[in-house]
């Protein structure tokens, strides 16, 4: 996400300490968002406003009032249509202006106006957006006291979950590989640039095995007190937008802190596992995920030709072989998909 914006256009809000929760899709990040929402300090949004995707750098020049109004009005229409979420438009604009304007000012204006409507006792907000780690620098620049949590999950589990629920054609779910690599590569660069005190990586498996210990680490990183309520999401969690209790592709509801299961062993084909493990090393090992090593069927033959001939995955695989770089994104543009739903007459 590279934009040629001035400092005034980007803006800066220093009195807020928001949290951006980043992740690959199907990575338990909605659950982590729910846990943070149990804290009396934080109001949580998940996959609703998605300001870094739908707002930031989309309404230039943002210093002109007509574009400010368009940003706030279109955000309201979109989240009201998609999620039945409302906020006071005038209040969002007022807060944004009092923040000094710019994209930061109106980001906080919108989020604060929503927070005032649904959780007036909360004092800070957090927003989760999947597959948007390219927006981390923009977020940290807009909010000098803001912080980022990036949630990791075993990419084989991610791929199995995505394969089980996606409507995308062909081998689109194999894009998990290139997104996973992209996230790791970007996070390394971001931590070097902004410092480890502003970006924390969390493993969903660690959260499941020892939730209190992991939540205490998160609270220490965020410089807040640990609250026992965070261990009881069924009672205390409130996430506006995407529902966290049913955010699983394998049916049922999330109860407590679900233990990780290696369902990828039954949902992925041997060649899919082999391709993922081959391309994601050494990143897989760095995060403590062991390769399958054994368990492949007898007389197993490696065959990647179907992947290479896929119209979407083939070029991505070839590009990775040439450059060694991952890539962020979905096969179908989520911005255009949502805008077509909400504003069919325009898109």
Provide a compact summary of the structure.
This protein has one domain: P-loop containing nucleotide triphosphate hydrolases (Rossmann fold), CATH 3.40.50. It is built from 18 helices and 6 strands.
In CATH, the architecture is 3-Layer(aba) Sandwich
**Rg result:** 20 Å
Number of beta-strand segments? 6
Broad CATH class? Alpha Beta
What structural class should be given to the helix and strand makeup?
A: alpha/beta
Q: What do the pLDDT scores average to?
A: 92
Distance between the termini: 22 Å
Q: In the CATH scheme, what's the topology name?
A: Rossmann fold
Approximately how much helix is present in the residues? 40-55%
Tell me, what's the shape? Answer: globular
Which strand order does the major sheet show? 5-4-1-3-2-6
> Which percent range describes the beta-strand content?
5-15%
Number of domains: 1
Full CATH superfamily name: P-loop containing nucleotide triphosphate hydrolases
């Amino acid at each position: 996400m590279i934009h040629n914006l001035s400092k005034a256009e980007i803006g800066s809000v220093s009195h807020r300490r928001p949290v951006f929760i980043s992740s690959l899709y199907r990575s338990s990040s909605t659950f982590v968002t729910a846990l943070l929402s149990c804290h009396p300090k934080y109001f949580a949004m998940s996959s609703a406003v998605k300001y870094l995707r739908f707002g930031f750098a989309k309404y230039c020049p943002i210093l002109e009032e007509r574009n400010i109004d368009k940003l706030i009005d279109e955000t309201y229409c979109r989240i009201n249509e998609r999620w039945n979420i409302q906020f006071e438009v005038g209040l969002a604009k007022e807060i944004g202006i009092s923040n000094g304007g710019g994209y930061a000012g109106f980001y906080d204006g919108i989020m604060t106006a929503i927070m005032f409507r649904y959780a007036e006792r909360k004092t800070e907000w957090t927003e989760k957006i999947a597959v948007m780690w390219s927006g981390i620098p923009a977020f940290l620049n807009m909010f000098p006291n803001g912080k980022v949590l990036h949630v990791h999950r075993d990419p084989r589990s991610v791929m199995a979950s995505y394969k089980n629920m996606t409507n995308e054609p062909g081998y689109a779910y194999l894009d998990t590989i290139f997104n996973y690599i992209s996230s790791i590569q970007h996070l390394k660069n971001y931590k070097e640039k902004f410092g480890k005190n502003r970006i924390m990586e969390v493993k969903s498996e660690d959260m499941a095995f020892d939730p209190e210990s992991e939540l205490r680490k998160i609270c220490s990183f965020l410089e807040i007190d640990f609250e026992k309520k965070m261990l009881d999401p069924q009672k205390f969690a409130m996430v506006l937008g995407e529902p966290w209790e049913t955010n699983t592709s394998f049916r049922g509801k999330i109860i407590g802190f679900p233990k990780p299961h290696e369902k990828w062993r039954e949902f992925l084909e041997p060649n899919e596992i082999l391709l993922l493990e081959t391309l994601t090393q050494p990143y897989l090992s760095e995060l403590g995920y062991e390769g399958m090593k054994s368990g492949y069927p007898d007389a197993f033959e490696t065959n990647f030709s179907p992947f290479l001939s896929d119209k979407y995955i083939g070029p991505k695989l070839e590009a990775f072989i040439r450059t060694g770089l991952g890539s962020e994104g979905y096969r179908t543009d989520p911005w255009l998909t949502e805008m077509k739903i909400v504003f069919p007459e325009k898109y």
